[in-house]
């Protein structure tokens, strides 16, 4: 095992090695050349090389269970050890279920599940059952949590009842999924057992703030409606001091969100007249904002932060919170004191997915990048819960726009197969996002993430037009599917 210290000197690597009594070499990568070439910009980034010199696994973060399984596999089958298997690109079309009618079960009524259910229902009348299961009674439009955080939306304005889908002929079960039984093609909730012919898993990323000691006492969760409401209350009574926006670990959904949060807080405090008595800091393990979108995007966002006097702390590998002193501490670095801490909690695949046998070494569900099929027949995974490797070794970001387009592709494939034909619907890797800047302005970026060798993402300059585009999209989203 070798640890490479990006942008670290020989001395700092040695002192880190001594402090933690590390039994493996710690190599200095002072100019970040190794880091930039081999990683996707996240810290930590793990690469497992087999005895034949081939890369067996590479992943953002360090998923202990997935990594241990990959190492175990290497010991078990050293000769045949292969990278995490790509699921078969095309499987034989699935015949319709009993009596010619199929049951399609969709797990999760978030961005991906909602779109999949809608498109499937549009493709055929009542013949096939479409069942959507979510433990929440409501669909939440998560992007608007940022506006909720600064008091521009109420919580009830960014939700819609999933039970409204029944009007469209979609069955809705408001219950928690507790087991996915792939062998018997069965999903269990607390109160029901549902057989499926096709399964679409769109359960998103599970937020686990409880894995960070002190989170509850010290941090407000930006990614949760209750947390966003609490941030708004805290900002309303804020009279000056240091605001920290902290990314606790990688990966996290919507790579732009922490930056948007910092910019919106800046606007809020200016309007309130206390910006001159405040500091805003962004702490993140990334080496630049939105590393997957390339250096141009990173530089543009860093520049915007600088112009608004928002201090940026890249490569901040968060280790712990100390509520007593109100500090956040990076591994091997100095504590940072913050008065108001807005945090993105760690993400992981939902527990029920982790225990289902669907998970790959990355800790998420591996899928074919065009068809979104898993290696289990008739089972698809879309949105944040899947893991799609890009040509440059980075991972497709977790974003609603991808969940949306992936859902359409999967719905199209299932519907076509149920008509006894083969579908050539394929997800293209195209996506876009708005970057809300506050003060009624936004930037916009879009492109093809499947472009080779690197995603090609174009950035459009900030203007009011993009902000209104984002507002219109929100309105459209909350009307269109219900
Ligand atoms: C603050 C913020 C801003 C964002 N801004 C943007 C943006 O501008 N653009 C963009 O593209 N993306 C944005 N995103 C990301 C986007 O919201 C997600 O990527 C998207 O919602 C993922 O869709 P999904 O269907 O995979 O999962 P989700 O939408 O998270 O849905 C998962 C669903 O599964 C349900 N569920 C989970 N576990 C269970 C269980 N065991 N049983 C039953 N139900 C369960 C949940 O209740 C949830 O409804 C933002 C996210 C946040 C938090």
Write a short abstract of this structure:
With 482 residues, the protein is α/β, with parallel strands linked by helices. It has three domains: 3-76, Glutaredoxin (3-Layer(aba) Sandwich), CATH 3.40.30.10; 98-205 and 349-430, 3-Layer(bba) Sandwich (FAD/NAD(P)-binding domain), CATH 3.50.50.60; 207-346, 3-Layer(bba) Sandwich (FAD/NAD(P)-binding domain). The protein is 27% helix and 27% strand.
**What would CATH call the architecture of the largest domain?**
3-Layer(bba) Sandwich
Helix content: 25-40%
Output the CATH class name of the largest domain. Alpha Beta
Low-confidence stretches: 79-98
Major sheet characteristics: 5 strands, parallel
3D architecture notes:
This protein is an alpha/beta fold. It has 3 domains: 3-76, 3-Layer(aba) Sandwich (Glutaredoxin); 98-205 and 349-430, FAD/NAD(P)-binding domain (3-Layer(bba) Sandwich), CATH 3.50.50; 207-346, FAD/NAD(P)-binding domain. The strands form 10 sheets. The protein has a 5-stranded parallel beta sheet, with helices on one face. The protein has a 5-stranded parallel beta sheet with strand order 15-22-16-17-18. The N and C termini lie far apart (52 Å). The relative contact order is 0.14. Mean pLDDT is 90; it is low at 79-98. Bound molecules: flavin-adenine dinucleotide. Residues 108-113, 133-136, 142-143, 145-146, 176-177, 202-204, 222-223, 253-254, 257, 350, 352, 383-385, 398-401, 403, 433-434 line the site of flavin-adenine dinucleotide (FAD).
